[in-house]
Amino acid sequence: MDMKSIPKVELHYHLDGSINLELLAEFMNESNDSVSVDEIKSLVQVDSNCKSLREYLKKFQLITKHMQTDYALEKTAYHAVKDTSSHNVKYLEVRFAPWLHVNDGLSIEEIIKYVLLGLKKGENEFGTIARAILVCLRNDNIEKNIEIIEQANHFLGKGVVGVDLAGDENKYPQRNYKRIFERAQDYKLPITIHAGEAAGPESIRDAIELLGAKRIGHGISLIEDYDLINIVKEKNITLEICPTSNVQTKAVNSLHDHPLRRLYDMGVPITINTDNCTVSNTNITKEYQLLADYFKFTQKDLQQIVYTALEASFAEKLLKKDIKKIIKDEFTVY
Does residue 232 contact residue 199 with C-beta atoms inside 8 Å? Predict the structure, then answer.
């Protein structure tokens, strides 16, 4: 089976962490930071010696520094669609935190507009359907995060499909954001929450019960709580698992310790994603190849994971129906 050519759906893809390296080199050279692509790799990619999520996140500092203009945001979003389309991704949800891109004076609304413009241009040119998820940051104050919820409501149905919460879940527990995500629920915004990556299963429980999450970013520690596994299954809460990233951030110590196979076999809805293509030096084809080679997922298993991702996506119902037909037709080739 040619893993690159099978149809895929990706739900957990960070815009900044997946920036095209050649594009970043262009941005840096325009800022008189003359570097080669090879030199950039060492600055923004982690290696096997990465010791923690905190160390992993340090790689983003250089990237976000050069994602502060309308041109940079639009081009990065455009290349996100271009790059994923080469791996036959049929539907892509790109998430980003607008407050990380205000240093050159762009407003939150302008930042969102330029990202959406780049996604739309990429979609029109390459065929991969792309939508955006706006990220609230745990280290931001309530007012800033409320602004993200308001903007998500404003752009809902215009390219934005949901909201997220990201950051240090140990230092900033989920309960601190109940008021913010109550407003998201009032607006009926689809919600995904980073949880169970650097904290235990209680973080996942709170994301579901306090914040209204329908999907969980990572969710690795779910395996530690069998009662919660049953709740996740009953509520059809889907996990956005990112195998390579999970090892690098030490959510798990190694692929051998990764619970994704056990979770799948227990009937937990799981999806497979890249998280940060550039920082993790991966792509969605590599992640699917890991499933087949290391975790012994069959073609039927992989097909089920793709369908699970599509069903769990925040795409419009009619769009899901159209994409499902395309995916089904392509899988008949294998």
Answer: no
